[in-house]
Amino acid sequence: MNPALVFDWNGTLLDDAHVLLQTTNAILGRFGRRPIDIDTFRSHCDVPLSILYRSLGLSDSEIADVDRDAAAMFHDAYEQFASKADLREGARRILEIARQKDASSIIVSNHVVEPLRSQLRRLGIDDYINEVIAF
Prior knowledge:
Elements: E1 4-7, E2 14-15, H1 17-30, H2 38-44, H3 49-55, H4 60-68, H5 70-82, E3 86-87, H6 91-100, E4 104-108, H7 113-123, E5 131-133
Parallel strand pairs: 1-4, 4-5
Antiparallel strand pairs: 2-3
């Protein structure tokens, strides 16, 4: 039996910390809040994202607006910024070695499947990934 490697996508293979910062700032801006810097983002970052938004001062009703319109508010901004993100250092090499060793590489993510697959193609690693299990 060949081994399988299971990866998360966001922050593990994809270097998207600044993408999440830009997305968070876009959401904060929709509610008239000032943008934050990467250090503030890192010190407040939590999941679910409602915890992050609350710690940054959004009200419960504003968080409800984000949750209600999450596809448009979060994903549209995120995908725009993510289209310029790169892989984390060493990610491509790990995937190459896994393929050389006949190991399956699987991504398990809370991200949406088709945009994730689009990113795999853009980054030229779609042939390295055997399966995507995502939202």
